[in-house]
Structures are given as structure tokens and as C-alpha cells.
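We treat protein structure as text, and this decision shapes the records that our systems exchange. We quote a single record here, exactly as it is kept in our systems:
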Amino acid sequence: MDMQHADSARNRRYTVVAHRDLVKVTLDIRRSEFIGMIRRVDSEDEARAWIDEVRGEHHAATHVVPAFVLGADRDVQRSSDDGEPAGTAGMPMIQALTNYRAVHDGEEFSDVSDICAIVVRYFGGVKLGAGGLVRAYSDTAVAALEQTPLIVRKRMLVVTVEAPHADVGRVENELRSAHYEVLGTEYAGRAATVTVGLDDADNALADFNGHLASMTAGESQGVAIGTQWQDVAR
């Protein structure tokens, strides 16, 4: 398992794009074509590589404007106006990303990260002015975001639980029924090992072991092996 050093992050959860597929929308704004694209990225290098790829594909475009936000604390934020007047393209897209309100379990969160947005503009002959450009780039980014499936990413305490092969199916089902995040199961050796992700909170392991004790008549106990960031369904 790829364990990550997550202790430096202040936040314990944030919102990310749910998959690696490209999301793409097109808006026609006063004869100009604005193509908005969203993709999940894990690093600045990955974001810049994709930006270069899009620039190559749209070499005839008037402008290719990128913006990306990275990290649980969103401490990496980069953008470019790519020839548009300063402050009219890249920064409005950054603001669209950072202000976007994702909804999880009926609650709103402005915490989208690990995301890159690109807006490609093909000029149609009508100048939009500074205010019009800000709205066009922001609206295109938001339109792409609205088509983007989002999911929660949590910093989780990773715990392993050993159970007899004959009982592991029941243990897995009961853990899932209790809304624990089962990350996987290994069947090597005399006992199976179930890996579980818990919320990274002070009492999480003690609470989990209390529940596990009642589930297994005290025969199993969770052992913490580290922390990692994990996409979860809620």
C-alpha cells in the first residue's frame, strides 16, 4: 500500500474530481468560441504537461488560458492570462475554482482542489472588454465545473484487522454496514487481513476497536499502520 505523509496538511478532507476523464464544454459568447476543460491532476508537473498537450492540440486558438489548484490546503494556485489583458482570464478562473460550492450529503463546501481548468478561446471578431472577458472565462470554468463529478478526499487512519478466512466475509459486511471504509482484503497466510480507513481523529482507533470487539466477541483488534489520503463516497 502506498502510504503518504499527510501530517503536514491542516485540512483532513477536501473535494476532488471523481475520475481521471476529461470534462469538456463549449460556450459561444459574442461570436467567440470558449472551450472549457477540467481534469484532475496530482502535481504541478502533471498540470503543466496537460496544459502543453492542450496548447499543441489547439495551436490555432487565440488564447489557451490555464488555472490549477493543488493540495489539501490549496496552497498551490497557478494561472496565466496567455495574452489576454492582465487579470481578465487566469485569475477569474482561479476564483471560479476556489469559490465553487460542492455539495456532499446536503452540505456545501468551497474546497475543490487537485484540479486543472483550461479555457481555449477562438476569437470571433467582437471584443468583449475587460469585464466581458472576466465573465466569459469565469462562466466557462463554472460551466465545466457544473458538469464535473466531484467526490470527497479524506485523510484517513489506515488500520488492519485479521480474521479467520471463514469469518472475513461477515466481518467485511458488518464493517461496511457500520459505514467504515473497507479499502481491501488480503487472503494470504492462515488469516485474512482487512484494511480499513478511519477518519483521522484522536479517538477513531479506540472507537473502532470497541465496535470491532462487540462484532467479533473480542477476538479481533485493529492495528494502525499509518495515514493516507483516500477518495471516499461521502
Remarks:
- The helical segments are 44-57, 90-99, 129-146, 168-177, 204-216.
